[in-house]
Structures
1.
Amino acid sequence: VLWYQGESNTGRAVEYLKLQQAQIMDWRQKFRKPELPFYFVQLPNFMDANYIPSESQWAQFRESQLKALSTPHTGMAVIIDLGEWNDIHPDNKKDVGERLALIAKNKLYGKNIVYSGPIFKDAKIDNDKIILSFEHIGSGLQSIDGDELREFAIAGDDKKFVWAKATIVGDKVVVHNEQIKEPKYVRYAWADNPDVNFYNAEGLPASPFRTDY
């Protein structure tokens, strides 16, 4: 199954995780295939850009989709870079299909290929910095355009997020902001329409995430 979720659920982001998992289980039961592969597409970037860290129902919804990966025999294509601010149905369908195909080639057909961009793994606080680790780093992490990494925000206990300086150090990303002496939380691409440039060397974008659940 290849599933592209409609956007009308974005107002019920928390509920959606249960709905998505229930749908997968229900279809597997109905088709009598308990391991039926189910590969879905995370919602793209859309609407106006926001130039300060803020809340986003679309970001919350993408988070629910990311959590649905805990269901066995699933995969998620990240397309946070393929949307259009003024078109809820973006034109670029080819790259969406190709990213889904990478998942199928690896998970279903056993090809030894990188099929996902970086997925957040854990965060460790080191004095005034937070060190982020990822799965699916491929051949390495990169800024796809050579500029400093964008869309990373950091906060202390008060959860008042400010933009962070994010630096790739080996296979990790180190984030900090001199104003936040005791950082606790990080968000990445937490917006309706973030301007992302964090990818792995294979050219696949990182999924948005947050650590302040």
2.
Amino acid sequence: WEMDEVKFFADAVRVLQNILTRRIQKNSLAGSFKSLEAILDNVGSAIYVKDMETEEILFANRMFKNTFDSEMKNGMVEKLFEANLKYNRGTSYSEVEYKEKRRWYDLHTTVIQWVDGRRVTLCSIFDITDKKLYQKKIEQQANNDFLTGLYNRMCCERDLLSYIDEAKIGGSKGAVLYLDLDDFKHINDGLGHQYGDVLLKAISHSLQRIEGVENSCY
């Protein structure tokens, strides 16, 4: 072999090695992304991945696309889920209320290294609407009278202590108005408790419609 021929074949081998190495790396990267995509599509929560530098959404799993398709098209994802995350670049947790859809979500975010090596924010979203509605129902049962819907006596005593403390601190004054229904016993005895209940509900609803009293009526 002449030296030029040896050099040519050596250069050719290096070129082929570079091509094969890049092809292997590309296939490995594609395979890694495919595996990761399959995992994230089956974790039971909506997930999207965002580049920390460019703010570009690199990936959204099937559940996120199905649930928030219009939000992605309208560019509403950041406004909806990231309003409280702009100053928090690490792992965080928050509750998000989506008023237009009357839904509640748990949002978990964490910084990870993506398959191509760049640093990204992974956001996991769980629908907790049923849990919030149940909590609201339990709180309402604890604080509200079953028949009238007004706050109950326990809630009144608790709030009254708070009002008194605020008045002492601020040097202000307040008033408690106590209403009683004369001869209400005769309505129950004469017409029956169901008519007494109707009267109590009607009076309670009327009181709640008075401006300034609606949130402090017990």
3.
Amino acid sequence: YYGVRLAFRPAETLPPAPFAPYKTLPKTTHAQHVWLVVADSLRTDRLGVMGYARNNTPNLSRLANQGELIARPGIAAGVSTAVSLPNLLNVIREPGQTDLLRSQPHNLFALARQSGFKTHWISSQESKLLSHLGSNHLDVSITREDHPLLFLKRHDHALVDLLAKQEWGARNFVTLNLRTAHLPYEENYDQHTEALNTWPTDSDLPREQRKANAYDNAVSYLDDVLAEIITQFDQLEGERYLIITGDHGQLLGENGRWGHNDLVPQVAEVPILVIAREA
């Protein structure tokens, strides 16, 4: 698009963004801990806690049934991680506002710091995902590149191990970036199947069924990881919030399409799961 439409043209030919400027209004909060968990490729209609027929989220479903977890459908900020994560963490609703990615006037890490929170980024993915996320506003930044052997052995459970070693401040804003449901699905859970609800992925099954089962197995593994994260969250004190969502959904062979770079409901819809304590 740039090469054909924009190259060698003066900048003033670009139309202004048609959206009203954002406003951030600070409000007093007594929250001591806010944890945001972003799981890769998390598709709403394939989660038991959101009504999917398979019980691939037994821990989340139990909390929802007990009234301890709110589960709602949401909309992703983009259909690729490189778009959705920066827009989510910079609180950008509408497209085409790249200036807000550069200036970051309402970056969540920056706002958390201004409110007295210690900021943490702990990710089982690569450090390149920190682009435009506001890494200069982070007090703690850990990615899989910092502990390659741990992540190779423990997969997303490595995040649980690293969480337990954190030195918490009086107030903390923590973002956890999980890889669990990312392709290839089997590599994310293959060493943990004994503790999970799993479905067959034999090579003689049709590709659509095999991949769909592997995705459900990955979600089952995610549920197991989230259960341990929630256990650590519950050991904290004071008013606190845990939000779980996805960066985007995932196509699993619908109309012969796979992956997540299509703007269709299976990709655009993500879950919003919230747990609050002493709040």
